[in-house]
Automatic annotation (TrEMBL):
It holds the Pfam family Methyltransf_21. This is Methyltransferase FkbM domain-containing protein. It comes from the Eukaryota. One of its GO terms (biological process) is endosomal transport. Residues 70-233 form the Methyltransferase FkbM domain. GO terms for cellular component: endoplasmic reticulum membrane; Golgi apparatus; late endosome membrane; plasma membrane. InterPro entries: EGF_Rcpt_Signaling_Reg, FkbM_mtfrase, SAM-dependent_MTases_sf. PANTHER family: PROTEIN STAR.
Length: 264
């Protein structure tokens, strides 16, 4: 028996075969064929990120053919931290976007990376949550009622957007490690994490001894920089840059302690 309900209620481990197979069978979209042209709104824009892509590439000595995972990928173009890497430096990777409208646009961009319409779990096992749709600032609200066995008091399930459509949905989440296993890649050159407030909880689900993540950018303006630093330093990472986020891109840049010596 391998169903979503069984998987969620039994809190299956991140590497459980049912979890991995469910991701592959139900959620994982393959990369577009390399010969298929991109379909972009601004094809002549060099780098749509707020400086993250080129900062990471500078640290990585303009590495080509790297591998990324971008969580909070939006439509795959607007403010993308990885599109420049993919188009210009022959990188590939994984794009995770929970907002279903944005994800549909992401698929239409013909990105040359895997894509999943899910959220990252805040626990080290799969969960279902209520998710507020709000384009670039959509976010997890709290665990779905049937999983918790209680009526939600904090989240208004009947909340509507301006068009009269519900903007609160139930959404499936998977741990980051499960997604990496489903794709068959635990070595990551760049991990972009921007999920509007749950970044630290997500980082705490990662079995760091089982993955090889070279660099990260993590949005800090919800939790603050110091809690992220306090968590990442004992894991073997140091801060090598920051975006202060006066408009967009309030990110802190981490690299694994030994990565500089491996690259330079």
């Amino acid at each position: 028996m391998c169903t979503l309900e069984w998987m969620n209620l039994n809190r299956l481990q991140q590497n459980h075969p049912c979890v991995i197979e469910t991701i592959r069978r139900r959620y994982l979209h393959p990369p577009a064929d390399p010969d298929v042209p991109y379909v972009l709104q601004a094809p002549n824009a060099s780098d749509p990120s707020a400086g993250q892509a080129k900062s990471i590439l500078k640290y990585l000595a303009n590495q080509t053919e790297g591998f990324f995972i971008e969580c909070g990928a939006l439509d795959g173009e607007h403010l993308s931290n990885t599109l420049y890497m993919e188009r210009t430096m022959q990188w590939s990777g994984i794009l995770v976007e929970a907002d279903q409208t944005s994800f549909g646009k992401l698929l239409s961009r013909r990105r040359k990376s895997y894509a999943l319409p899910v959220c990252l779990s805040l626990e080290p096992y799969p969960t279902q949550v209520t998710f507020k749709i709000a384009y670039a600032v959509g976010s997890i609200q709290e665990p779905a009622d049937y999983v918790q066995g209680k009526k939600s008091k904090k989240t208004n399930q009947g909340e509507k957007d301006k068009g009269g459509n519900s903007n609160i949905i139930t959404l499936q989440c998977f741990p980051l490690y499960s997604i990496l296993l489903a794709v068959g890649r635990t070595k990551v050159d760049f991990f972009s994490l921007d999920v509007e407030g749950h970044e630290l909880k997500i980082l705490k689900t990662i079995p760091w001894h089982k993955v090889d993540i070279k660099t990260l950018t993590v949005e800090w303006d919800h939790v603050g920089q110091q809690p992220l630093i306090d968590y990442m330093e004992p894991k073997g990472y140091y801060v090598f840059g920051r975006n202060e986020g006066t408009t967009v891109g309030a990110d802190i840049f981490f690299a694994r302690n030994d990565s500089f010596h491996l690259i330079h």
